[in-house]
Amino acid sequence: MSTAALLEVRDLAKHFALRRGLLGRPSGWIKAVDGVSFHVREGETLALVGESGCGKTTTGRAVLRLIEPSSGSVTFDGQELLKLNAGDLQRMRRDIQIVFQDPYSSLNPRMTVGNIVGEALRVHGIARGAELNERVAHILERVGLSPDFRHRYAHEFSGGQRQRVGIARALAMAPRFIVCDEAVSALDVSIQAQVINLLKDLQDEYRLAYLFITHDLNVVRHIAQRVAVMYLGRIVETAGTDELFDNPRHPYTRALLAANPLPDPSSPRPRALRGDVPSPLTPPPGCAFHPRCAEALAHCDRQTPTWIQIARRHGVACHLHQNTSRQGDDEIPDG
Amino acid sequence: MIPTTARTLSDDMSKRVLSLERLHVSFFTDAGELAVVRDVSLSVSAGETLALVGESGCGKSVTALATMGLLDHPGRIVAGDITLGDDVISGFSEPQMRKVRGARIGMIFQEPMTSLNPVFTIGRQLAEVLRLHRGHDDRAARLASLALLERVRIPAALERLRQYPHELSGGMKQRIMIAMAIACEPQLLIADEPTTALDVTIQAQILELLDELQKDLGMAVILITHNLGVVAQYAQRVAVMYAGEIVEQAPVTELFADPRHPYTQALLQSLPGTVDPGRQLNVIQGTVPTPREFPAGCRFATRCGEVLSRCASDVPPASRHGGNHVFSCWQRMESTS
Questions:
Q1: What topology does CATH give the domain A5-95+175-321?
Q2: What's the predicted TM-score (pTM) here?
Q3: Chain A 48-67, CB below 8 Å of chain B: which residues?
């Protein structure tokens, strides 16, 4: 690795117990996240893409310990987050923030915008009184909102403005890393462009690292330097953004890209991937993608594919690429 | 530059299925009349897909609801005609419209979750449609239901008929909705954001299916969406709405290659992918005005980068650009004439 990663995630897993039976024994497990590894460097955007139920949102929350992971390791700036006690974790959380998808349900309707944005500063005892007001006004201005808005309530604003409030709240603590969980997905095109530009500006200004969770491939191509593709709780491919779009290797990544309608009538019609995403309760054995895979080999339904680094920054978990592994690789695997 | 209405737009009048002529819809609130849809004219022919595209609150769904006779109080059509085949349905009573909906106009919506009744099986809900509109008895309804499920490519159809909506995936539910919508082989299908709640691979399946059914049945389709990728790939013609008005209408290739209206241009330029990754996206400043704030003239005047002095006060007339490309903009009209 060229520079040390700011965030390093190793073998992260989150298994949800299913309806506990007699004597509190779970009747089954949902492996929402099942052994996920990746890293994000300072000032970098890693996109985590996949369809609903693939575990991308759970991954984002487990990284922040908003959901307690079942196992694995998350180090931030060299510190193991999963071993921190409550007090240390809270201090660490100044550096790590999250912006949610739905600007309608993620802002408390009973709080003024000023209180929403300033809450963390107050709770952490960083600012109070006039200084707090001044900082909140400054942050609001930075995200393109009038400082006068701090006396108003979230419901008075449009979706785009609310999302700016959500970003202002995340920015208040001057974090180094932000999880953006479908942060622009609910916004109209013209508003989405404004918010994407804002996130990009803030990243350049503060050297922010983003874990950008989304299903929108067009946004990914614009905003991310690297991409990790998830399917049914696992990362199936990671690569630099251009490499992933130009040279996708996993059949699922290819299918995902082929299904994406491009806003250009002369580009080829989307091709549909057959079947539905299987239930994470009963994931298919072997490679979880094999029932939908057009290129599945005989052993794909029995053996779980191992991670293969096919180029310095390009890794894939697929039996098709079993023999293309690069030797003597110095890069820590991304996936 | 000839002022024009939808009448002059269609290539083949004989295949015309639906036309809206200068439709105005208002909501009558305590605070007064809100003109949410103003002077909308469009038409769609058999076998054709017209995309109605625009951002939230642009009036695309209200236009669709008005077409189906489903406007709720306090909304009302205040002027204009809606013609389906040879019938001016905007003058129809509610009992008359009930016969039109389902039988002659099929509908699918964004949320298959909320459009299906959770306490009845799929079979019972399909059978009800068939009994109501086709007068089928139980046995005939059951056979027709099975045929419909196969038509929308639902595997293990017999088993599905016994299931409840919550037992099916989002994509499956949308297929059921499509089966209900096409049960009576309608002339017109209105699909309001049919894939917005679905994943991209499922979206492709559903749009492929709609395309196939349209070819089989020769339906006219109005595809309401905010997704310009879906528009580019699945529509033949596009009507762009902004703040309750159609600002531009054109064949799909022409609209993407040569947009005339500043709003259409700005919308296309704001898409990720139009500039190199990492560069600033072009943006449209400000936000869509609420109906109470609509300017008297061009409704885009408050956000337009090329606004003229008359724009805020005078409504721009529809102008033609080539064969069947129509737009409403003072600036472009003057610069082209």
A1: Rossmann fold (3.40.50)
A2: 0.89
A3: 51-52
